[in-house]
Design brief:
single chain, mainly alpha, elongated, membrane
Length: 157
């Protein structure tokens, strides 16, 4: 017995399993003793009229079955409506993607048509329009520095 207790104290996993089993057993006992909130269906005595028992049983079952059947029918009818809409959305997305690709291809062909390479007049392009009036002194200094950085050093020229 002391070996069992020391095993439980050494490994909390076994202790946890035993406590969980005890609590589960207690809860199941409490549930079985509590009456159902909707009223429990106990077998009726033979002295009561069988018609009254059948009416109560039949009406309740019929009402609940019809509501459940309506729910099932609504689920069944709404599910096929969802499927085509998903397929329709997927089809629309594909169509939009194809349209985007088509527009991009048209833009690319327009760029090729206006390109000086395809026209054959690469050398006849307009010159770059430089406006030196808007340049500042700092920009000019930076230009000289970059020209020194990017070119060969003066000592090697």
């Amino acid at each position: 017995m002391t070996g069992f207790i020391s095993l439980l104290l050494d490994s909390p996993f076994f202790l946890f399993l035993i406590l969980a089993a005890v609590f589960s057993f207690i809860q199941s006992r409490l549930r079985s003793e509590e009456p159902d909130p909707g009223g429990s269906r106990q077998p009726q005595e033979s002295s009561s009229s069988p018609d009254q028992g059948e009416k109560d049983f039949d009406w309740r079952d019929l009402l609940f079955e019809t509501e459940e059947e309506k729910d099932r029918e609504q689920r069944n009818t709404s599910a096929p409506e969802i499927e085509p809409s998903r397929a329709q959305q997927e089809l629309e997305e594909r169509y939009e993607a194809v349209q985007r690709r088509k527009k991009e291809a048209e833009k690319q062909t327009a760029k090729r048509d206006t390109s000086p390479i395809t026209r054959g007049d690469i050398t006849r392009s307009d010159g770059v329009d430089l406006d030196f009036r808007s340049m500042k002194k700092d920009d000019i200094v930076k230009g000289f520095v970059w020209s020194e950085v990017l070119s060969k050093p003066k000592s090697r020229r």
